[in-house]
Amino acid sequence: MDYKLPTYLRLVIILLGIILTVFVMITAKSILVPLLISGLFAVLISPLASWLEKHRVPKFLAAALSLITLLAAMSGLAYFFYNQLIGFSGDLSALNTRMSELIGGINTFLENHIEGSVPISMSSIQNTVYSYLTDNVASLTQGVIATATTLTIIFILPIYIFLFLYFRSFLIEFLMRAFPDRHQQRVSNIIMKVKLVVQNYISGMLMVILILAVLNSIALYSLGIKHALLFAVFAAMLNVIPFIGPFIGAVLPITYALLAKDSLWYPFGVFLAFYVIQLAESNFFTPKIVGGKVSMNPFMTIIALFVGNFIWGLAGMILFIPGMAMLKVVFDEIPGMEAYGFLLGSVGSRNKDDGQKVPKFVKTVKKKVEKLKS
C-alpha cells in the first residue's frame, strides 16, 4: 500500500528545499559564479574546439586555441573601453564647469519664483558626497575586497574554461552514467538541447548587442554627441540585463548631453532615439534573433532578475536568464514537470516550439473552459 505525504507536509518540504538551495547558493557564490560563467563561455566556444578536433588538431591544443581566441576577443573589447575612457576623462573638468553653470541657473530660477528657497552649491554636493563616503567606510572596504576577489576570479576563469573544454566529453559521459539505462535517451536529449539553448542565447545576445551598438552610434553621432561610440557600445552591452540595463544605458548619454550641450533638445533627442531603438529591440530584434530559439516568459524573466540580484547581485541578474532557459529545457523533458516548463516559456511558443505537442493538461483545461462557456 502506497503512502502519500499530506499536502501541507509536502509544501513544507518544498519550502525547506528552496530555503536550503538559496542558502547554499549565497554561501557558495565565490565557487558557483566562476564555474557557471566559465561553463557558459565554454559551451559558446565548444563548436570551435570540436571543429579543430575534427581537423586532427589534438584535444589539448584545440582547447587552448579556442581559449586564446576568446581571450583575444575579450582583450580587444577591454582595450577599446580603455581608450574610450581615457578620452572621456579629459572632459571631466569641462563637465564640472558645466554642472556649476546649471546649478547657478537653477538657483536663479528658484530665487525668482520660490520664496525662501535654499540655493544649491557645488560645495554642498561635494560635502554630501564626502560625508557619505566617510560614513560608509566599512561598505567601501568590503567593495574593495569584493573587487580583489573579482580580479582573482578573472584569472581563474580561463583555467576553468580550458578544463571545461578539455573534459567536456568526460563530463557528458559522467552525466550519462549517472542515470539508469532507461533514461539514457532523455538525458541525451536534455544535454543536447541545453547546449543548443546556451549557444543560441549567447550568440543571439551578441548579435543583438552588435546591432544595438551600430544603431546607438548612428543616433548619437547624428546628434553630435561626443564620445558617441563609448556610450553606444556600453548601452548595447547593458542590454544583457533585461529591462534595467537599457534604462541605465540611456541615462548616461542623456546626462552627458544635458551637461555638454546648450539646448535641451539634445538630451530629448537622445532620449527619443534610445526609446525608438529600444522599442525595435524588444519587439523585433530580440524576439526574432533570440526569442525564436530561446523562448522565455517576460513575467518569469523579471522574477529571475530580482531573485538573481538578491542571491548573486549583478552576476545573478545576468546568469539567471540563461539559467531559466536551461531549466525550461529540463522541465520539458521530465515527465510530470511539463507544467513548470510551460510556466517558464513564452505564452505563444509552446504550440510551435521544435514541433513539440501541447501538454495533455493544457488540452484538458481548454476543453473544460469551452464546456463552461457553452
Structural class: mainly alpha
- N-end to C-end Cα span: 41 Å
- How many DSSP helices? 15
Major sheet, described briefly? none
Helix-strand pattern? HHHHHHHHHHHHHHH
Rounded mean pLDDT is 78
Uncertain runs: 349-362
- Please bin the fraction of helical residues: over 70%
Beta-strand share of residues: under 5%
The tally of beta strands, per DSSP, is: 0
Report the principal-axis shape: globular
How large, in whole angstroms, is the Cα Rg?
26 Å
Characterise this structure.
The chain has helices at residues 7-27, 29-54, 59-89, 92-113, 122-135, 137-166, 168-177, 184-222, 228-237, 244-260, 265-291, 298-312, 314-333, 338-344, 360-373. The chain is mainly alpha-helical. Among the domains are: 24-93 and 127-178, no CATH class; 295-365, no CATH class. It is globular, with a radius of gyration of 26 Å. It starts with 6 loop residues before the first helix and ends with a helix. Mean pLDDT is 78; it is low at 349-362.
Short summary:
This protein has helices at residues 7-27, 29-54, 59-89, 92-113, 122-135, 137-166, 168-177, 184-222, 228-237, 244-260, 265-291, 298-312, 314-333, 338-344, 360-373. By secondary structure, the chain is mainly alpha-helical. α2 crosses α3 and α8 runs antiparallel to α13.
Topology:
Elements: H1 7-27, H2 29-54, H3 59-89, H4 92-113, H5 122-135, H6 137-166, H7 168-177, H8 184-222, H9 228-237, H10 244-260, H11 265-291, H12 298-312, H13 314-333, H14 338-344, H15 360-373
Helix pairs in contact: 2-3, 2-6, 3-6, 7-8, 8-9, 8-11, 8-13, 9-10, 10-11, 12-13, 13-14
